[in-house]
Write a structure and sequence with these properties.
Helices cover 41% and strands 14% of the residues. It has 12 helices and 7 strands. The protein is globular, with a radius of gyration of 17 Å. Helix 1 runs parallel beside helix 2 and helix 1 crosses helix 12. It starts with a strand and ends in a 7-residue tail after the last helix.
Amino acid sequence: MRIVAFYSPKGGVGKTASAVNIAYLANAGNCSTLLWDLDPQGAASFYLSGASRTKGRKISKLLDGRLPIADFIEENVYPNLDLLPSHPSFRNFDIKLEDDDRTNPLKTILGPLSEDTSLVVLDCPPGQSRLTEQVLKIADLVYVPLVPTWLSLNSWYQFQDLVKDKKLGLKKLRPFFTLVDRRKKLHRELTEKSAELFDRPSKAMIPYSSAVERMGEEGLPLEVLSPRSTPAAAYRQLWSEMKAELWGKNTRAK
């Protein structure tokens, strides 16, 4: 089982749309996938399955072991794709986590899924917290969406410093540009310099598009809503890169 997290220090940068579209692409490639919506706002739950199917359950019952993770999962939202929907109680996730570096409740919770799940996609809430640190410890790769602006890059450098300082795995970070508007000079300049800005730049750049905005209106991933759109193609490229890193270029995800 591989674990991929989508994280951003700030909201409104396309993090949740990215998590949902990658989770759907993994499922479409016959990779048994779980999307865990860790954000109490529940946007990923809505994007993936619409408002009528995202009730969720209190996180305390999962963290203290009163209920198994299977009781929280909505199975087969799409074939091979399960959803652990958000719940308002997720805002207390940090309070519930034990302040003990020797343990990782998230790893324990996900353990029972290891035999039947190939990929876990974590849609993380914005900000820097104990939950962020727990996610960084268990994730194989952490994808960080960035709008091509200097403020966004500054938040990226600050996040890098945090990860380095706490030894949480700098090499697993994967920044990529989102909401790219090539009509803007700064966007063009920064995207063209990605190889200089990042140690491991992604070739995939997600454009600003009304198709992505419609995901919120329709409650559907792009491959269902608008598969021929430019952002849908960009997400396919991102998934291709991710799959090669997780399982190797000549190895098929299982």
